[in-house]
From TrEMBL:
Function: Involved in the storage or transport of lipids necessary for membrane maintenance under stressful conditions. Displays a binding preference for lysophospholipids.
Subcellular location: Cell outer membrane
Alphabetical UniProt keywords: Cell outer membrane, Lipid-binding, Lipoprotein, Membrane
Similarity annotation: Belongs to the calycin superfamily. Lipocalin family.
Highest taxon of the lineage: Bacteria
Pfam hit, one: Lipocalin_2
Presence of keyword Membrane: yes
Protein name (record): Outer membrane lipoprotein Blc
Length: 199
């Protein structure tokens, strides 16, 4: 009797290259998504001759267009400081009166291009960035108007809990000229009554 060679069954493995291409495409898409929304909106010009070291320090958020991540918060503030690698450490803080506690988020900002232009991208999680563009700035760095990735993101910051006389209307006029719907601007209660800072 003639012995037959053993039958070898070919296992059908899926080729790995479609998965690799798919992963690369997904990575590229995430990168584009993360970086595409950091530039200033059309018609918005960030200030020049910007000095990030003068901008560093504590700012009160006296006004904003409200969004989910800040909704309901009062006594909101931002603190900026330089990191050794040239990026900017960002600490946002606000008090949640409904829950009776402080909420804090720490992120990192980098300049979009030239460090002398007040156009930055900020990330609070992973590779995802949002735009941060200073479009009006007091010559003594006492107040600033910031626009985000689009005109639905606006913050008015001040070194003090209230703005100097006349500045509020000046900044609202600037925002309107850029196309911001200033009816959406929320003026943030600051300091009165002051919640317990130890909580």
């Amino acid at each position: 009797m003639v012995r037959q060679p053993p039958i070898r069954y070919r296992t059908h493995r899926r080729p790995i290259w479609p998965l690799a291409i798919g992963a690369a495409a997904l990575g590229a898409l995430l990168t584009v998504t993360a970086c595409s929304s950091v530039r200033a909106p059309a018609g918005v010009q960030p200030v020049g001759r910007f000095n990030v070291d003068r901008y560093a320090g504590h700012w009160y958020e006296v006004a904003r267009i409200d969004h989910r991540f800040e909704k309901g918060l009062v006594n909101t503030s931002a603190h900026y400081s330089r990191n050794e690698d040239g990026s900017v450490k960002v600490v946002n803080r606000g008090y949640d009166p409904e829950r009776g506690r402080w909420r804090e988020a720490e992120g990192r900002a980098r300049f979009v291009e030239d460090p002398g232009t007040a156009s930055l991208k900020v990330s609070f999680f992973g590779p995802f960035y949002g735009g941060y563009h200073v479009v009006a700035l007091d010559e003594d760095y006492r107040w600033s108007l910031v626009i985000g990735s689009d005109l639905d993101y606006l913050w008015i910051l001040s070194r003090t809990p209230t703005l100097p006389e006349g500045v509020r209307e000046q900044l609202l006029d600037k925002a309107r000229a850029l196309g911001v719907d200033t009816d959406k601007v929320l003026w943030v209660p600051q300091g009165q009554p002051a919640p317990d800072l130890r909580s």
